[in-house]
Amino acid sequence: MSYRVIVLALFFCLISFRMVTAGEQARYTDSIEKTIRGTPAKKLQAELLLAATRHFNATDPDKALDFASRALILASKADLPELKLLAMIEVGRIRALKTQLTQGMEMALKARELAGRLDNKKALGEACLIIGMIRIFQADYADSYESHFTALRLFEEIGDQEGTVKALNGIGNICYYQRNFNKAYIYYTKALKIARERNDSIQIANVVNNVGLVLVERDQTNQAIDCYQEAIWIHTRLGLKVRLATNYMNLGSAYLKLTRYTDFKANYDKAIDIYSSVGSRHNLALCHLVFSDYYKDINDPQNELKYALLAYTDGVRYKLRETVFQSATVLQEFYLSAGKIDSAYKYAMIRNTEKDSIDNENSTAKLTLLELEYNYDKKVKEDSMKQQRRDYITIILIILAVSGLITTILFLSRQIVKTKNIRLEKQRLSDEVEFKNKELAINVMNLLKKNEFLVEHTNRLIEIQQKAAEPDIKSDILQLIKGLQRGSGDEIWDEFEVRFRQVHSGFYDRLLLKFPDLSSNELKLCALLKLNLSTKEICELTGQRPASLDVARSRLRKKLGMLSSQTNLVSFLSQI
What is the CATH class of 163-268? Predict the structure, then answer.
């Protein structure tokens, strides 16, 4: 295992434990620093710094920003463009969340430009999300829509579902800020569906929290509280305190709507403590606005004015147009009810100016246009994919058809060759049998000649024996005649059977299988008949008279079950 892999493994073992107390966080930071100092490779150092950044993102943004900034400097000096890009995205996101909008936008724009050069679509999508988030803070909703839809296309193109959830959630946020709650709910539920399918706890908590916002606006406050509590449970389990602050703030707002003031204040105090510690001025300004509403509800005009002014001051300082608009609206109504017309007029003018700059109508039209473009592009891509699938299927079918045709041709060719070979083999065997039959016929003829020769000389000996005067000579000649007759018959038949079995092997076995009662003489007669020998030839071979042979043939027909005289005995035996 390489040194680099070992160091990374040790580091990720460290970050797998959530640190709760300040002392534990400090010790954890020391462990990270020691690991980084003990790592000579610049690339590995930058990777460790980025990992530490992600660990502290939701618990200590200041530390996260420090680690991200150091990673950016290190990657820039070491000429590591991919790591530099990741560091820029982290720095831009953290600065945006800390309401350092100018610095955050500058970094996000640089990251977008570098991601384009590196053709890193995931990083490009993340940069667009940061730009879109900052545009929400600045109430530039039209540009925010543009950035979020760009990110959505990029994430869908590369199949990044986590990024897709973030983009859909961001679009829902813009709709919510524009008070287009129905549209916001549509985007939130789309995002939540994907997050739950992926079992992504962090994204589930983020989106569930936002669904609660819409439910409050629909007067479904109790259901909204359930959503907030689910998000709080997840973020508490994961130790993500910055996101917990948002959940506390929204849960407090729900309790305020139900006039449960104690619960409202308890949750808002928790949110303000966290936001103050991490320097999230945007969210603090929102908290101040809600506190202004709270003090108005309990008829405390002094604190109502105090918190409205705090929200307005933060809005102006950090260029939060929506916050300036809302706080100016509260201040206008406050001074108007107090009879301070000049102050009411001042904030009315500010309110109207911000309202014009927010330009909800144009941004709503922008959303409609972007949705149309997005849906059209998606349909075009789907149609293109369907056409590609059809083309692939057509190509596959053509390939299969051609393959099938080739296979069929090859099969038929092989069958033709095989059939031809079988035919040739049959012809060869037939020729061989015919040749052997001819050879056998020649041998039979030779045997007949031989037998004829023996018979002729036997007859001659008989004539000599009859003429002989001496009894001893007569007896000897007679013994010689009997020996010749007996020996010639056996030798002729033995030689015949050897030749016959070579040509017609298995004939006797097949014959006996069908007709087991046949005698040896009948088997010999069947063999001679199979060779289509004439009665005369058979008689010469067997030494029988023609009349005896006819009787033998008749008995054989009966044993073979040939009752009809029309059936040819030779033809019958030739089939066996």
Answer: mainly alpha
